[in-house]
Amino acid sequence: MIYTRLKHIRQKAVDHAAWNKFCFFAFSNEQFMEGVKKVGAKKNKEGKWMLVKIPGGGFLNPKGLPTWHAFWDNWDKYEDAIKKDDEFIINGLIYEYGNYEAALGMGGKANAEAHFPGATKEQKHIAWQRYWKDLEERDIV
C-alpha cells in the first residue's frame, strides 16, 4: 500500500468514526460554542467546560473517550503492520519530503523523516535519491 492511499483511508475512517458525534474542532470562540452545543458538553462546579483536548485544535466530550481510544488503538495496530514494508516507507518519505519542501532546506528533510522514526539509513537514502530525481525530471531544480 502506498503512503498517500493510507492517508486517504485514515481520513475516511476518522470522518466516519463513532467518536465523531462527541468531537469538534474550533479555531474561534464562535466555533467553540457551536461545538459545545453539538457534543452536549456540560460545565463542572467551577464553571469550566468538561472537555478533553485532542490534537489539531479538537475537543472531545468525555463520553466519547472509550470509542476514541478503541479507534486509535486499532488504527495504530493496522498502521504499524503496514509501516514495516520497505516500499511503503520509501514512498512515505518521498511524499513527506515534498510536503515539507525538503529541497529548500530549513529543516524540511529532518521534519519529513520524523514521520518515519524506524526508517533505515538505506531507506532514507533511496527515498532522497528518488525525490531529487523526480524534481529533476519535472524541471523543478
| DSSP summary, beta strand count | 3
Mean pLDDT: 87
Distance between the termini: 29 Å
The strand order across the widest sheet is: 1-3-2
Specify the number of helices. Answer: 6
- Let me know the largest β-sheet: 3 strands, antiparallel
Overall SS class: mainly alpha
**Broad shape:** elongated
Strand-helix topology:
Layout: H1 3-15, E1 23-25, H2 29-39, E2 52-54, E3 58-60, H3 65-82, H4 86-99, H5 108-113, H6 121-137
Antiparallel strand pairs: 1-3, 2-3
Helix pairs in contact: 4-6
Structure in words:
The protein has helices spanning 3-15, 29-39, 65-82, 86-99, 108-113, 121-137; strands at 23-25, 52-54, 58-60. By secondary structure, the protein is mainly alpha-helical. The protein folds into 2 domains: 19-80, no CATH class; 83-137. The two termini are 29 Å apart.
Main traits of this protein?
elongated, 6 helices, mainly alpha, 6% strand, 141 residues, 56% helix, three-stranded antiparallel β-sheet, 3 strands
How is this structure best summarized?
This protein has helices spanning 3-15, 29-39, 65-82, 86-99, 108-113, 121-137, and strands spanning 23-25, 52-54, 58-60.
